[in-house]
Amino acid sequence: MFERLGPAEIEKRSFEIITEELDEKGIVLDKENEPVIKRCIHTSADFDYAETLSFSDGAVRRMKELVRGGALIVTDTNMALAGINKKKLAMFGGEAMCFMADEEVAAEASERGITRAAVSMEKASRLDRDVIFAVGNAPTALIRLHEMMEEGVYVPKFVIGVPVGFVNVVYAKELFLDSDVPYIINRGRKGGSNISAAICNAVLYDM
Asked: Which of 9, 10, 79, 144 allows an S-S link to 118, with CB 3.0 to 4.6 Å?
């Protein structure tokens, strides 16, 4: 049935529908994680996120602490970068950035025969600020972050791991599930740049 709603009412009504359908399915969400899960569902119209999104203990609380401390958000795609509410992030002294189009990153990746996403993570690890990594596309970004941990050269402050696809996607996500790094990970093949941006915005809007 057609619902005549004003622009400001559409999102509100969408979240009401999400809540109603979750109730019908008998799904009860953890209160702290609820805004993140619902925004991912809102972004994708996919209720699987209620079951597959995984959070380390106190993940949302920890991400908020990092944002309040002026942390940077580094994405693995310009699409995710475009989707993050940078004005809201700037209110806390933070900034969002992506190095995938960086000419030096592209040249180094070509020379070493690895992905730009992997080199982007290395570049981000050299920033002199706390970094929240928001990975929605490239499993190689997560794999390189984990390799740097194993090499003892870098430990991420926070990882959002929601790459989408088929090759090494599940493997890359699972690397962090047993780590000490705070994370929000979507188990399985689903995810995407829109989901990584949605997670960032869900936390920002709840602050």
From this structure: 144
Q: Can you name the residues that pair with 131 across neighbouring β-strands?
A: 72
- CATH code of 52-205, in short, is 3.40.50.10230
Domain chopping of the chain, boundaries? 52-205
Across the chain, the runs of DSSP E, i.e. the strands, are 53-55, 72-75, 95-98, 131-135, 158-161, 183-186
- What proportion of the chain, given as a percentage, has pLDDT over 90? 93
As annotated, the active-site residues are 42
**Crossing angle of helices 103-112 and 116-125, rounded to 10°:** 120
For residues 172-187, one letter each, b for 16 or more C-beta atoms within 10 angstroms of the residue's C-beta and e for the rest, the string is bbebbeeeebbbbbbb
* CB of 161 closer than 8 Å to CB of 186: yes
pLDDT band at 4 (very low <50, low <70, confident <90, very high): confident
Check whether 3 has a pLDDT greater than 90.
Answer: no
The three state secondary structure string of 14-49 is HHHHHHHHHHHHCCCCCCCCHHHHHHHHHHHCCCCH
Helices 193-205 and 59-68 cross at an angle (nearest 10°) of 70
Rounded-to-10 torsion of CA 182, 188, 189, 194:
-40
